[in-house]
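User: Predict the complex.
Assistant: Input components as received:
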Amino acid sequence: MSASVIKNVIEKVKKTDRDQPEFIQAVTEVMESLEPTVERHPEFVKAAIYERVVEPDRQIMFRVPWEDDNGVVRINRGFRVQFNNAIGPYKGGLRFHSSVNLGIIKFLGFEQIFKNSLTTLPMGGGKGGSDFDPTGKSDREIMRFCQAFMRELFRHIGADVDVPAGDIGVGGREIGYLFGYYKKICNEHTGVLTGKGLEYGGSLVRPEATGFGGVYFVDCMLKAKKMDLKGKIITASGFGNVAWGTCIKAAELGAKVVTLSGPDGFIHDPDGITGAKIDYLLEMRNSRRDKVKDYADKFGVQFTAGKRPWSVKCDIAMPCATQNELGKSDAEELAKNGCQFVAEVSNMGCTPDAIAVFKEKKIPYGPGKAVNAGGVATSGLEMSQNSLRLSWASEEVDQRLKVIMTGIHDTCRKAASDYGFDKDDYAAGANIAGFLKVAKAMLAYGVV
Ligand code: 2IT
């Protein structure tokens, strides 16, 4: 029975959402690991929880008209997918990138349901964004776009309804413009967005949190094998917010990140990305040039054009850029070069055939929804602080983040072994543990 319930859900999504490959990929990965839950929970089958969880509560698409610096009117498409609010208000980032379409927002929103559940905080799953490309845009253009985007989004969100945040292309500056405009038109100063500036309700450690959480998770993975981070070589991709936080915490715990990448290629810095070099990542991001070669030019290290960093020898690989950024041949090369752990900090960073290689080679692989959950967890802590009308010291936030990440790590291993998988199968454990909480809540509500 279990095989057919799961198979039918996947087949149906493949048919009805055939133009959404990333969504089909995410659904397939999650559903396949839920097979053992079907046997154990006939009540979920009876209530059609598996069929329901792959269908968003609602999908909002809207026109975003804005004026560029030359007075030309430009039109982009805006999205907010409110996927599932069984365990809390919809929560998830906004992505501004030229590749954004409904399928990408749906895959991200779907992953967010289980990720948010794993954090143990009361947050449902949602995601949004636009096909707007921030590369090369002026500050005023970014502002006008954010205001135009919020001009429609405001009617769909709220501190107890749906709380967006940043993702690729949306950082502190964009959240400032979005929040400022929401406050203006709603006349309301509430925690409706996270990733806010410290002056107006933001949380300490939120900018670093995704990377910090990723490194805490890796630390747990190593400890489970009686190893530790001291002296370990890490290859990372990307050079945004996530890679930045990863470099800081890795350096703090005695490991060394030696690569970064961008759309133009990757850099290799064998001495490690530490100290002032880490600060330079912020400058690179603020320049909006979207080029990692600037790092090589500044610090005189090797730049390889048009390639990703997975050929560089490492102990731990941490993809920090975007979906499907690490494929089968990359995985094979990592294995050949002695890589011992893979922790995906990006959302769905590894392709299914890359994950299969890790499994075959017995390289523990931490999936994005567990490894990168520190970002949204700290957003949840920002919401808590907003509700309390208090702000916590950075030590308090960081400590809570560490406790949450350790909890997620242990939960993944326990759920995997409870449901008949290898303890090292973090992907199965994350999917099962994340799903069970949401499914039980959905069941409690009856058929709605
Ligand atoms: O993918 C993610 O978890 C995020 N972009 C962060 C979402 C959030 O609400 O902080």
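The chain has three domains: 1-55+425-448, 56-188, 209-363.
Let me know if you want any component modeled separately.
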